Amino acid sequence: ANVETRNDVTFFAKNAIDGKFGNRSHGSYPFTSWGINQQKDATLTIDFGRSIQTDRVNLLFRGDYPHDSYWTEVSICFSDGETIKVATTDTLEFQSFYFPEKMTSSVTLKNLKKAEDTSPFPALTQIEIFGREVITCT
């Protein structure tokens, strides 16, 4: 990630991959999330360290409303440069995005478009990327 809120462990990027789904509050365990500190060009990259095949990304936004905001659009970018733009909502449930199976070594979230509301605090509670190992025979 290129940003985290206030160097506070409850808002570290690693929280978005820790398997904890508490998203109805913020600022203390177990309500951890990736906070972007109101940075408009915030990005989060998941690097697998190898190629994988994937066809689905799930996003779970923090929803401590009305304190929180949310993103209405997110770009999902792959290591080959391909980008998929997805529309998102303020749901408290996972939002699932399916696409044709893709080989990639990383997934980056960027171009996070904040909702036009009064809160300056959108945050990501969890990202899940579904796929499988790429097996090569020699």
TrEMBL record:
<protein>
    <recommendedName>
        <fullName>Discoidin domain-containing protein</fullName>
    </recommendedName>
</protein>
<dbReference type="InterPro" id="IPR008979">
    <property type="entry name" value="Galactose-bd-like_sf"/>
</dbReference>
